[in-house]
Amino acid sequence: MQRISKDLLKQISDELIAQHGSPRSALIPILNRLRMDNVTPDATVMKMLAETLQIAPSAIYGVVSFYSFLDHRPKGKYVIRVCQTISCKMSSATEIADALKSELGIEFGQTTADGLVTLERTNCLGLCSEAPAMLVSETAHTKINTANVKDILKSIHKQMPAASN
Ligand code: FES
Description:
It is built from seven helices and four strands, in the order H-H-H-H-E-H-H-E-E-E-H.
């Protein structure tokens, strides 16, 4: 999880307000930018954002708590979201989930001790014809099997050599 200064938050906010027309219209794009930069919108960030945008903190919390991708709880550098809806369930999503839990040594809703990966369930990703499917942060992976799981996790660790041992 990254920290963000008031100045940087103001700079990002100004840029996105200019693009979207008003602080309220820019709220989700700002939260999304923070998510992409691995900044968790925790209580401190939501308070700073409320001051920057002159929007009630409760309104910001309402948005953050409504969208699961904007979770206010800290997450790993990578978030793996495994589809648990019917088409994927019928295409061995449960085995994929078990392989991920086993390889990572965590349960759904947890983050690895090195802070690299958070494992979550998600509903249909719209990739049913290529089930089972999952997202690794922004990247969709389809027709996954347990061998793919190992390869995907290896590639995550290769991208973060300092975090993998
Ligand atoms: S059911 Fe998994 S992508 Fe649609």
